[in-house]
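Notes taken during the Thursday session

The instructor put the following on the board and asked us to keep it in front of us for the whole hour. The protein is Ring-cleaving dioxygenase. We were told not to look anything up and to reason only from what is written here. First, the residues (322 in total):
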Amino acid sequence: MTIATSGLHHVTAIAGDPQRNADFYLRTLGLRLVKSTVNFDDPGTYHLYYGDGSGKPGTLLTFFPWKGAPKGRRGTGQATTTSFSVPESSIGWWKQHLGDLGVTTSEVRNRDGEDALTFLDPDGLALSLVAHPQGDPREPWDNGIVPAEHGIRGLHSVELSVASEDATAEMLSGLGLTATAQDGNRFRFAAGEGGPGTYVDVRVDPAVAQGLVAAGTVHHVAWRAPDETTQANWRGELLEAGVNVTSILDRQYFRSIYFREPGGTLLEIATDEPGFTADEPLLELGRALKLPPWLEPDRESIEAMLPKLDLPSGNNPEQSPA
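Then, after some discussion, the predicted structure tokens were revealed:
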């Protein structure tokens, strides 16, 4: 293929209770809720977007939270770990911070020259904080909960679990990623020049059972396209290559196409445009429930189905801190 992604756009996972989910990602990890909307295919549930102050592509972890959702199972055919980027000097702070809040973490481990700390969110989603030795120039969300000097900079990488690597590696190469390292049964690919926000690690283990996508697992991984024209051209190339890819879908804040890599993980190509300020000001991101035009006639019934969310006042900087 002639088009190459510049890196990760977002990761979307499934959660249980939406308030518990919001409490963890806003109050424990210190991210910002940049959009509160609904699953366009199932408007009876939220779609919550967490990221940096403006929700830049490459900083976003999003959730479909269903209260009472069955527990998923990590395994092959899934993205099994989602990693965030933090400053190299902050790993010790995060270990202490998470421990103080009752979150069990691993010991700090070094791999590929990067220190990493792993843990689970309240639904069992596998997360990692990774410190890249060359640093990460992206600005954190300064919310008054996590000190800015330790704040999460954005996504670092995702790990895909597969039974066999060859076909998956071929598709990742077709998306413009380059194989950069191997550590046993783990292969690293990077978009562009590499660095935090560009990596995908492919872990090969044919003995691991197939994963089950439900609460505590990743639904899909999205890669960046700069605009709709590039995305449309990319879709054409995927179709020519025999990939079963969806039509272009309007997600309000980006346009999306979806397809599966040969190992089973659902992938998306999402546009950088138009972004999260398309329907509300920067300072008010995430405060109100936003619906696409085709769901606005049903707003009253949709709002009646959704539980109210208690957000920290720091999510909107013009409010007085609680």
